[in-house]
């Protein structure tokens, strides 16, 4: 019978080769840019719509609900479309009431449909006229101290989306 020995050098070399392959692109598919993004880039599923300046701008179709993950995005909505905004917060770090700016007559506030937990920010809207509306809210980054001597911060988390009604 032949005795087999385990070689740590072979295991280390195999591990390095395996790790070197992680993250590399394979196959004949799309080539990536080589950078990593914290948030996926939205794909455009509708034709660009003219912006207020007359140039073509892109926006994603608006689904039934906006969340904190939609921060910074621009959405398109047809007249008579409706959606709601749900921002999940906590009692210690609550979202402020959602504010609308711009062509505010384009969106009409409607019944949200159910009660929100403490700290959540929520609103519901129906598109009633053409226009561009910016929705926004903020909340503290840190909870308020509950006892003397605890650390506090003045940081604020911002949320903002643009809705183009056409």
Explain the layout of strands and helices.
Elements (H helix, E strand, L loop, with lengths): L7 H14 L27 E2 L5 E2 L2 E2 L3 E2 L7 E4 L4 E6 L11 E4 L4 E3 L11 E7 L3 E10 L15 E10 L1
Parallel strand pairs: 3-5, 4-6, 5-11
Antiparallel strand pairs: 1-2, 6-9, 7-10, 8-9, 10-11
Question: What is the quaternary state of this protein?
Answer: single chain
- Catalogue the unreliable spans: 6-56
Radius of gyration: 24 Å
Helical element count? 1
| Helix content estimate | under 10%
The CATH topology annotation of the domain at 65-145 and 153-166 reads as: Immunoglobulin-like
Average of per-residue pLDDT values = 74
How many strands, which pairing sense, and closed or not: the largest β-sheet?
5 strands, mixed
User: What is the second-level CATH architecture of the domain at 65-145 and 153-166?
Assistant: Sandwich
Going across the major beta sheet, what is the strand order? Answer: 3-5-11-10-7
Shape: elongated
Class by alpha and beta content? mainly beta
Note the beta-strand portion.
25-35%
Give a written overview of the molecule.
There is one protein chain. It contains one helix and eleven strands, in the order αβββββββββββ. With 166 residues, it is mainly β. A hairpin with a 5-residue loop joins strand 1 (49-50) and strand 2 (56-57). Residues 6-56 have low confidence and may be disordered. The strands form three sheets. It has a five-stranded mixed sheet with strand order 3-5-11-10-7, with no helix packed on it. The chain has a four-stranded mixed sheet with strand order 4-6-9-8, with no helix packed on it. The chain has a two-stranded antiparallel ribbon with strand order 1-2. It has a domain at 65-145 and 153-166: Immunoglobulin-like (Sandwich), CATH 2.60.40. The radius of gyration is 24 Å and the shape is elongated. It starts with 7 loop residues before the first helix and ends with a strand. The longest helix has 14 residues, at 8-21. Residues 29-56 are annotated as: Disordered. It comes from Streptomyces hyaluromycini. Keywords: Signal. Residues 33-56 have a biased composition (Low complexity). Residues 1-26 form the signal peptide.
């Amino acid at each position: 019978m032949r005795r087999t020995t385990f070689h740590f050098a072979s295991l280390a070399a195999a591990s390095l080769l395996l790790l070197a392959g992680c993250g590399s692109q394979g196959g004949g598919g799309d080539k990536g840019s080589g950078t990593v993004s914290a948030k996926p880039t939205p794909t455009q599923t509708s034709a660009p719509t003219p912006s207020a300046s007359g140039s073509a701008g892109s926006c994603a179709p608006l689904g039934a609900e906006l969340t904190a993950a939609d921060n910074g995005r621009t959405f398109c909505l047809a007249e008579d479309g409706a959606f709601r905004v749900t921002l999940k917060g906590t009692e210690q770090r609550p979202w402020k009431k959602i504010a609308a700016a711009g062509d505010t007559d384009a969106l009409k506030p409607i019944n949200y449909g159910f009660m929100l937990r403490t700290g959540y920010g929520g609103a519901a809207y129906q598109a009633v006229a053409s226009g561009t509306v910016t929705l926004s809210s903020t909340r503290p980054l840190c909870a308020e101290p509950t006892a003397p001597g605890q650390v506090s911060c003045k940081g604020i988390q911002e949320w903002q989306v643009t809705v183009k009604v056409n």
